[in-house]
Amino acid sequence: MAIVGQKLVKQIQTTGLKATVAQRLDDAFTRFTAGLSWNDVRGILRGDPPAKPNPRVKPHTEGFWFHIRPTFYHEAVTTLYPTFRLGLLSALFFTFEIITGIFLMIFYTPSPTYAYGNMIDILTNVPFGKFMRDLHRLGAEAMVIVVTLHMVRTFVTGSYKKPRQFTWFTGVVLLGVTLFLSFSGYLLPWDQLAFWAVTIGTSMADAVPGIGPQLNLLLRGAPDIGAGGLLRFYLFHVVLFPLIGVIFVAVHYYKVVRFGISLPPEMEAVGEDTARKVPPEKRVNFLPDILTNELMYAGVAFAVLAVSCATWYSAPLEHHADPLVTPNHTVAPWYFYWLQGLLKIPHMIPFLPTSIAVEVDRFFANVFGLTPKVFWGVIVGPLMFAILFVVPYIDPNPSRRYGDRKIMLSLGALFAVAIIYLSLAGIPTGVPITGFGYVGGDPASEVGQAFIPDEGIGPVRRLPYEQYVVGKFAINAEPNTGSAGLDRLIRDIHNDMEARKVRPDPLGKTLSADATGSLEVKQIQADLRQVIITIDYTDVNGAPTQFKKYTFLHAQSGYAD
Amino acid sequence: MSILKKIVTYRPSFTVRILTGLISMLILLSVCTFIGLADQTRLNVRANEFNARSIEVGAKVYFDQCARCHGVNGEGVEGLGPALASEHFVGRIELVRDNMQMQTIRVVQPSERLKQIGWQGTLRDYIIAVTEAGIPIKTSNMWDVTHPTFSERLGGPLRGDQIRNVADYIINYGLDPLPNDQALLPPAPGEGMAPRPTPIPLTPAQEAGREVYLAKGCSACHAIRGVGAQGAIGPNLSRMGAVAEERIASESYKNNLKDQPPATTGAEYIRQSILYPNAYIVAQCPQGPCQANLMPQNYEQQMTPEELNNLVDYLNALR
Ligand code: HEM
Prior knowledge:
The complex is a heterodimer.
Chain A: H1 2-15, H2 17-32, H3 38-46, H4 58-62, H5 64-67, E1 72-74, H6 86-106, H7 115-124, H8 129-156, H9 165-187, H10 192-207, H11 212-220, H12 227-259, E2 283-285, H13 286-310, H14 337-343, H15 354-368, H16 372-394, H17 406-426, H18 443-451, H19 458-462, E3 471-474, H20 484-502, E4 516-525, E5 528-538, E6 544-554
Helix pairs in contact in A: 1-2, 6-8, 6-13, 8-9, 8-13, 9-10, 9-12, 9-16, 10-11, 14-16, 14-17, 18-20
Chain B: H1 2-8, H2 14-37, H3 39-70, H4 87-90, E1 92-97, E2 103-109, H5 112-117, H6 123-133, H7 160-172, H8 204-215, H9 240-249, H10 251-256, H11 266-275, E3 284-285, E4 288-289, H12 299-302, H13 305-317
Antiparallel strand pairs in B: 1-2, 3-4
Helix pairs in contact in B: 3-7, 6-7, 8-13, 9-11, 11-13
Bound molecules: protoporphyrin IX containing FE.
Protoporphyrin IX containing FE (HEM) binds next to helix 6, helix 8, helix 9 and helix 12 of chain A.
């Protein structure tokens, strides 16, 4: 103490108080930045050229955070092409999800008794709660897109080739982590959407031959998803997958730094890798150029997310999970549509004549216990993902040039087309034109589903309460209810019914030509009405049949906005 | 092509980077400020929305589970359950909102019933308590049943959230409660233990009709006070004689009857309902709007004319 005090006093005596304070502050500042003085930082922010020797490399050797990053990039990889900054964006979204996730964690209990109520609390009682939830959800979906695009770009630029095979491999692990992080988070709100999407997803595990039931038990903690399953998914979501993610991002990024970001293919001789041999005049220093570039990307990405959540995006929250009620048209999350599409292939060998295909299926079912569901869902689906792992190891072509890689690029495109096609098949409406994957019940019930969906809002709930008129109205082209909104709704139902009468659905079913409908609005309580759609039609057996679907609508439920 | 190349090889200058970054940060901050400023109001609005949706879900639960005993309009059902929509039970409430849209329920007139039984908590708590746990003993001779247990924890069919939803729905009756004289009120505690007055004596033909009612399985879907199972798919028939007369006088019957001549007496209406169930579809069944094609359409083949006459005679005697 005495020594320090003496030194300080001496300094003040020799240089004066002001200069001493300034020098001491600058000292602290330099220690904080691991080597940059206040003036260095100001120089950086002004865009001054560096002094010689360049003081701006100090943080890279002295500090932890900067030592992870290279001191300079090759000029050729600092333009939009070839990286499109998708790796950076993946890392940003990952960090962003951790931050928003921790916020949400504070208000969440992983138990079927509380989870859904907690979600409502987050939306109605926690300041910034809805904003954080929307950000977390939108960020998660954006991350899936960004990581996939990052993979597509490293594939297209051939960056998975020697020496970066293992970088690619760890990348595929990260893609898996991203998908499963999203998927495990999907269950947590404990609403119908979540519950059934995850029930469908985990039923795949159940179908694995031999160990299915055990695997299912491991995932769900019980034969069906309940308290045990929710807790497990929560732990997957907040501990296991983030942990694997952090570890693999570290390895992945170490490899990226180790080999350097690959140059645009046309800049290198075939089979050569010059990413790390950067001539001095091609160097772009990390400080300040790359750092400011990345900060700009971070700023723009987060601003876009925030503006989206403040304007058009709203994370869905359906009704409380109910194991007894399967909503019509339940789907997996969109990034697993392709898997759901695969499951809709009726036979193991799709292009065989049906009679033979049935025999083949029967043979495999008898001998190996393989049904089409098991074959496509449990074997082909995961295999399609597993192929990604081995891409760098089976591609024998050393050239990264686009012109030399016609076969691989075509295969990649084919794979992408297949995924898109299967994804379309995965949704209830199926693929346009071919109709593959369409699932729909009776046309009358499809009218009901279109206007009063089991989950989600739909036109009937979207029409504001005040625009309904109590009474019973025939559904026809010229309704006259006294309310323009209700007239429009009835006309829409009419048009939908007429369309279903003349245009068969992909399964060849039409609504019978004699079908008539009515819409009834009843006052149930003050501020509460019931809207009932009734359709009288003739079913396929020629019997007169009636379809009814209703919903309750409260004046304040706010579906309209 | 060259434009694409320009975009793809674009490298923003230092100034552009700093400016874009700063502007983004500003946007981010203004979004947060914008959200923060009106957050309380927006939270309140959303709370009101979720309360409204809770009432919607509660209505569904009510029609699925409660209406068969408490009436589709909460008016109560003879022998099965007291009114829940009566002023006596729900009192009278009003919704008030402050200038931040915070909505609170103001009790204009408290529930008589809670006072009568000396319940200290809120109406909501009482509804939840009764619904969750049921009332395991018979408290009066007014009811032929004891209250079922609804909580999943006690072996019932409903989850906690569904019970809270239905409580919200019942409380909402308080905005416009049924006048007490239009509702079936429960006896005060300690009363109503006197034996029930013997029902109107039935003639031998009507007695035979009741046997037909039981033998043909009508009670799987219908309920008649004190007779057989208490089905909840079709309308309650305990007052069928009186109801039949109300039906034929109603506008709905005149407008919606199909393929059959209109009935002119209650007995004719009952006969028509049994032989041609689809001729006129009753609006409300205990679990929501009545469905066509549910009631079998072949009773003409299943019973002799005499059985049918007796059955109609019996149902017509229920008033
Ligand atoms: C959470 C997910 C991921 C993160 C955070 C991440 C991060 C990064 C970063 C920051 C880079 C530097 C170059 C650039 O920005 O493009 C990079 C490069 C690379 N990544 Fe990823 N990545 C992820 C997922 C993936 C996936 C799914 C793949 C492929 C299957 C992949 C394969 C590669 C390859 C091959 C490189 C080297 C590219 C080159 O040197 O040009 N990464 N990654």
